Amino acid sequence: MTRTSRPTTGVRRNAHVGRGVRVKAFQAVVVVLGVFMVGTGLAEVAIGPSLLPGTPAAAPTLDSNYRFFAAMWLAMGVAMLSVARRVRESTTVLRFVCAAVFVGGLARVVSWVAEGTPHPMMLVLLAIEFTVPPVLVLWQRRWAA
């Protein structure tokens, strides 16, 4: 091994360590998001739409539909948590969850147009639904299998 090859090896090793830190950061973000999704999904299934700000009592059909979709949100959170352990291999699951959240944001826009401006908290969620999923997909793409 020549002297000039040693620094290259060290640089590669350091790049690998840096990549590991970035993967760990991604995993941490995925876990936080997954725990948030599971937690809010459980709360929404258990308590119902009365959790929403400014929500009057919901009719039984609306309440039933709300809790059903809350369970879907919870399930997507579980799927997100499954991604954390195998971020390189879980491209399909991550992209599916991210696409579902993004499309959910589009549904909020449809509601906004049809029913009027929602509570400001819903607008914050809308901004998150349009930014976080694409960022996660692009971030994970860097080391996907």
TrEMBL record:
The chain crosses the membrane at residues 21-46, 66-84, 96-114, 120-139. Coiled coil: none annotated. It comes from the Bacteria. Keywords: Membrane, Transmembrane, Transmembrane helix. InterPro entries: DUF4345 (IPR025597). Signal peptide: none annotated. This is DUF4345 domain-containing protein. It comes from Saccharothrix hoggarensis.
